[in-house]
């Protein structure tokens, strides 16, 4: 990345990753043909798509974001031949664990080097309580094996951590359990599973932190319009906020209230962000977002915003590095078990760029300053790689990011889109 650059114009970032996964999962077990538009053609969502193809579901596409899923009904999945490989995708492994726990066949799911280090006991434990037979490798790590032919019973599960993946896993297992499955979360997390289940005609009751559903029902096929992913938009929201003269409009972005922490946090830092054209598309709120440059200031990030911005912290750390004064993050220990240890990896990278960034057990303390040129390692974490790319907008010399292969998991056209808006990115094989 050459230092400096501009951020001007209009863009639509790719489809929401969380919704893309769920559209395939629910479409596959629904009755009838589900069509999806705006599907994210990134490796993670494709891992989910390939998993269902391997279980006998006919899926057409993706072609220009359109996918057609010929649902096999709640009991129509077939045993895959061999293991299911889900690559880098924690969402695939954890949500599929719930969906597959009540099937008649055995399944083993494996992942790449990063996923193979991530905790799966958090889904194995509630599933076992429901009567599933779940095997993991040492320390609750993948591979994850589910033994078929068990009869599941509904549970009332109080989540020990704020995790939409764990909540969704339990609710999806609940579709196949006898009785009413309930989840209670310690803080609001993304509710796309609850909304989309309802879109498929499945009754889900939500009352504050509690979500519940009755097992044994059926899903009916539907059309799904996936909005642009706010987590991908976040890179450009920060890019525009830190680049003098920037004026950027991001179109058709999902602004579900459980996902808007990045907007709230940037605004609290003094960001100039206008949300307009608000509308609802398929049960999810969507808007256009205009971001102009503003001098940011450091803040203490409110802990209630942490789950609402959980994937956006790497790039928010870059915003903090460009802000005047100190930014303090607490209550974010979950960042240590993402695609990389995002607290440590970001702190190391920012320090290499001349910024004071001190990791703490559950967060970081960042002092705004001048970003210098550096070579930094993204540890094959897509969001870290893109965050370091954004940092180059304010660097005094080139920034070289290593280990960028996984950008394609969530944002395959990042380089083209960023270049089109005025960033100076060069990709070396
Ligand atoms: C996701 C939930 C979050 C998020 C991940 C996607 C989902 O994970 O970080 O990128 O689609 O449910 P956790 O549930 O581990 O917080």
UniProtKB/TrEMBL annotation:
Q: Which domain of life is it from?
A: Bacteria
| GO terms classed as biological process | amino acid biosynthetic process; aromatic amino acid family biosynthetic process; chorismate biosynthetic process
Localization:
Cytoplasm
* Residues the record marks as active site: 311
Q: What is its EC number?
A: 2.5.1.19
Q: Name one Pfam family in it.
A: EPSP_synthase
This enzyme catalyses: 3-phosphoshikimate + phosphoenolpyruvate = 5-O-(1-carboxyvinyl)-3-phosphoshikimate + phosphate
Give an example GO molecular function. Answer: 3-phosphoshikimate 1-carboxyvinyltransferase activity
Complex and partners: Monomer.
NCBIfam families this protein is in?
Answer: aroA (TIGR01356)
The role this protein plays is:
Catalyzes the transfer of the enolpyruvyl moiety of phosphoenolpyruvate (PEP) to the 5-hydroxyl of shikimate-3-phosphate (S3P) to produce enolpyruvyl shikimate-3-phosphate and inorganic phosphate.
Return the protein name: 3-phosphoshikimate 1-carboxyvinyltransferase
